[in-house]
Design a protein that fits this description.
Elements lengths: L4 E5 H14 L5 E9 L2 E10 L16 H13 L3 E10 L7 H5 L6 E8 L2 E10 L6 E9 L8 E5 L1
Bound molecules: zinc ion.
Zinc ion binds next to strand 4.
């Protein structure tokens, strides 16, 4: 089976990392908006979201307010785009989805997880839930340089 990948630029990855640092020691979360090209998700913009989970549990949980999610979805659709994934951070935990994440994920989206240690992002990986919801599989993440002229691609994980 062909596995997908997610493509974003260095500036977006930097924004995700700084959001993760600022939110530390709580989890941050946000939406990745763009479009699908086959099994590739092209991210065109990010939307930071509030971690709406109970404050005392935000160090290992996040949730996005359903109304805010719906508003962001409608906004994306009005631009001919869609929500292709969700990013969030794991303070003092590995860059892979937790059991909690698994029970709250949709198989259609990519989940980018940032491991944060002492306020610094140290590891970032993207995951997709299998259709049968049995497990997450890691997908490729390509970070595109935002230099003028020809875009160079750098594979940072697979
Ligand atoms: Zn998580």
């Amino acid at each position: 089976m062909h596995e997908g990948q997610i493509v974003l630029d260095q500036q977006m990855l930097g924004e995700i990392h700084s959001h993760a640092s600022v939110a530390y020691p709580e989890e941050c979360c946000g939406l990745m908006i763009g479009r699908l090209e086959g099994s590739t998700k092209m991210v065109n913009s990010l939307k930071k979201m509030k971690n709406a989970y109970e404050p005392s549990e935000r160090y290992h949980r996040y949730t996005i307010d359903p109304m805010e999610y719906l508003n962001a979805e409608n906004e994306a659709e009005s631009l001919g785009e869609e929500i292709v994934g969700i990013y969030h951070s794991h303070p003092n935990a590995p860059a892979k989805p937790s059991l909690f994440d698994k029970s709250h994920a949709w198989p259609t989206l990519s989940y980018v997880v940032v491991e944060v240690r002492q306020g610094k992002p140290v590891n970032t990986a993207s995951w997709v839930l299998k259709e049968d919801r049995s497990e997450f599989t890691q997908e490729g993440m390509q970070v595109v340089a935002v230099t003028s002229g020809n875009k160079s691609m750098k594979q940072i994980s697979k």
